[in-house]
Design a protein that fits this description.
By secondary structure, the chain is an alpha/beta fold. It has helices spanning about 55-60, 90-100, 110-120, 145-150, 155-165, 175-185, 190-200, 255-260, 260-280, and strands spanning about 15-20, 25-30, 40, 65-70, 105-110, 125-135, 220-225, 245-250. It has an eight-stranded mixed beta sheet, with helices on both faces.
Length: about 280
């Protein structure tokens, strides 16, 4: 494991792996680029920082980009605490402090969108903008049974079946995703943490849960989705922040940042650049 660090490890366009110490445990991350208002990328349930591999370089053209493993995922602490997703927000504040990142644009996919919203609610002064990508927690129903299957596939074949549901259609990535899901399910510590998150944070809201009070979010927000998302369907307009950009990508399922990496990343870059340039135009 890399030696824990508390300062940025990114130099120019080089992709670096690092580990910060947060709440007494490791927080594994990737970092690329420098300057500008950094962007913090938060993966979905059962994923890790590598799910952003198709986006990191392009996002770092004007800024530093950092993708972190959330608790219970990847190389970060296996301790998910109570299992409440909202508890990941103060953990992220510590992570930002460890990397000396005063303010960041936040991009969250699926569960990462839920976590990003909680961070923006807890520390709005630390969040320059919020991009929600096929996000959980917006009050739309989702497939709870799928989550339970995906964290404990009986064999690699079932893992591949679960992986296939994440995509809009056939993909060469599905076999590898299936292998990863099966490997995670075979790890009793990892599996227990993911089960706790499901039971505490997701099970009670599979039917959609309460709507979000968007008046509590002062930062710019955009919402991106895959049209054929079979895990969390695109939300109705009345569940979204008024006036926020909402783009749907026809060729994508639940992983638009992977399936439609170029147009999704371009949309994110344009949004972030617009947020950064807005003050100078006022």
């Amino acid at each position: 494991m890399p030696r824990p660090v508390s300062k940025p490890v990114s130099e120019g366009s080089r992709l670096r792996a690092g580990v910060a110490t947060v709440a007494g445990g490791p927080a594994a991350y990737l970092s690329v680029g420098s300057g500008g208002v950094p962007v913090l990328l938060l993966h979905g349930f059962g994923g890790d920082r590598l799910t952003w591999q198709f986006n990191l370089s392009a996002l770092s053209s004007r800024r530093r980009a950092v993708a972190v493993d959330l608790p219970g995922h990847g190389g970060s602490t296996p301790d998910v605490g109570s299992g409440r997703v909202s508890d990941f927000a103060p953990w992220l504040v510590e992570f930002l402090d460890a990397l000396e990142l005063a303010r960041v644009h936040v991009i969250g996919h699926s569960m990462g969108g839920y976590v990003g919203r909680e961070l923006a609610l807890l520390a709005p002064d630390r969040v320059a903008s919020l991009t929600l990508l096929s996000s959980a927690g917006l009050g739309t129903p989702f497939d709870l049974d799928f989550l339970r299957r995906a964290i404990a596939p009986a064999d690699v074949a079932e893992g591949r079946d679960c992986a296939a549901r994440l995509f809009a259609g056939p993909s060469p990535l599905i076999p590898r995703f299936g292998e990863v899901l099966h490997a995670q399910g075979a790890d009793p510590v990892r599996r227990a943490g993911l089960e706790r998150i499901i039971d505490v944070s997701f099970a009670a809201h599979a039917d959609g849960g309460p709507p979000v009070d968007w008046s509590a979010y002062p930062m710019p927000i955009q919402v991106l989705w895959g049209r054929t998302d079979g895990i969390i369907p695109p939300p109705p307009a009345d569940r979204l922040p008024s006036g926020a950009p909402f783009r749907v990508f026809d060729t994508a399922g639940h992983l638009p940042h992977i399936e439609a990496a170029s147009p999704v990343t371009a949309a994110i870059r344009a949004f972030l650049d617009g947020c950064d340039d807005a003050p100078s135009q006022s």
